[in-house]
Amino acid sequence: MTDRSLINLATPLAAARGSRLLSLALCVAMLSACAVGPDYQRPPAAAPVQYKEAAGWRQASPSDSLARGAWWELYGDQQLNGLIEKLNRSNQTVAQSEAQYRQAQALVRSARGAFFPTVDLTVGKNRSSQGTGSSSSSLTSSSSGIRDTYTAQAGVSWEADIWGKLRRGLEADTANAEASFADLAAMRLSQQSELVQNYLQLRVIDEQKRLLEATVEAYQRSLKMTENQYRAGVSGKDAVAQAQTQLKSTQADMVDLIWQRAQFENAIAVLIGLPPAEFSLAETKTIPALPEVPLGLPSQLLERRPDIASAERSVMAANANIGVAKAAYYPDLTLSLNGGYSSSTYANWISVPNRFWSVGPQLAMTLFDGGQRSAEVDRSEAAYDETVAKYRQTVLDGFREVENYLVQLKVLEDEAGVRQEALDAARESLRLTRNQYKAGLIAYLDVVVIQATALNNERNVLSLLQSRLIASVQLIAALGGGWDGALQVSENK
């Protein structure tokens, strides 16, 4: 047979071999296209058409230049904005969540790496000995049975994802990473909300302190006037005692505000990552403005609340884990290729006569495991049901929180109007009573009662303002951090 005939004969053989390899590759690809386990679908959750307590709210008009997500800028306080920036950089609780998110990202990269072949390289020396099985061997040299083996080996292995186990695992890890990112956003929002609430309460305390300082000055003047009248014989000793009691009680209330303010100041220091001894906030003469609350859309609550997003991603991960558990019923196909050199002498180690290689697929499956796989599938399905229930409960809790804060703000707004009317009346009553006392028409005891009533109304108005500010922060947090997106959608309708 000529060389040309050999070539002509080898060509169809090579073509047939290539065709078989191509067919095998196509079969593997087609099998890899399927993945066991259910495909994810978002669980239905109860969502009302509109908030029950939204009726009666006027449409607000936030600044168009307000940065998306910078909800704390609604309060118009530059010092507060600076504190939030420090929190975003240095808060240690947020740093923990951020590190957890990076761990979840690393797991996703590891899951992606499972789709690629694994390449191993092994180089080593093995020293071994084997007995001759004859008693005469004891008469020979002790080194006659010792042998050195030098080995250099490279191997490539790849697991074909026929049943989608790797893909479901990647799907689960990706969903967990997204849930971790949502947890990070939720933790950041929670810490921001806590800082803003502490800051607003601290500023209200500053205003209460200014009120008490002004009241103490007024009481000191009243005490001096009463003492003068006592020396002149116009009033009795009891009036002086009453004036002193009123003055000292108010001064004690001022002292009580010191530790309250210190607690909020120390809490803010920790939130921005500083020890309390290295942080202080100077008093200001203004309280941040109360933002106007626009109408909200319940359908957007799912999109803006990070805790709800995290709960849904957990459902996705649990759904994918069902596929991973079911894939354990099917065999694993691994393709491997190994080759290298092995020699008993270092000099001729890397040479053609010492080479070896092996190639071939490996199909492995468990025939009997005592029900472990079915138990794992049942566990995965139960875990999925748990995450679905948790997701639905998180949605319900979200709507409940929004409804609570909406009605709280609405009631507090109505109460504020009545409280202000009561304060105006108390101030007028105090003015008239003081004039009557100066004219000698009434006793100082009557003045004391009216002064206490007026001060109580002043403090009630400030406490009510504090409650409204705190409720506004809580509503913003319940909506996922602001309402810009909801406002834009409602305007486009």
UniProtKB/TrEMBL annotation:
Localization, UniProt: Cell outer membrane
Chain positions covered by the region annotation Disordered: 125-145
GO molecular function, one term: efflux transmembrane transporter activity
SUPFAM superfamilies (UniProt xref): Outer membrane efflux proteins (OEP) (SSF56954)
Signal peptide: 1-35
InterPro entries, per database record: MdtP/NodT-like, OMP_efflux
Gene3D superfamilies (alphabetical): Outer membrane efflux proteins (OEP)
Coiled coil: 80-107
Ranges of biased composition (kind: Low complexity): 128-145
A GO term from the CC aspect: cell outer membrane
UniProt cross-references to Pfam families, sorted A to Z: OEP (PF02321)
Location, primary (coarse class): membrane
Alphabetic keyword roster: Cell outer membrane, Coiled coil, Lipoprotein, Membrane, Palmitate, Signal, Transmembrane, Transmembrane beta strand
Highest taxon, organism lineage: Bacteria
Topology relative to the membrane: Lipid-anchor
PANTHER family tied to this protein: BLR4455 PROTEIN, OUTER MEMBRANE CATION EFFLUX PROTEIN
Annotated family: Belongs to the outer membrane factor (OMF) (TC 1.B.17) family.
NCBIfam families in alphabetical order: outer_NodT
Name of the molecule in the record: Efflux transporter outer membrane subunit
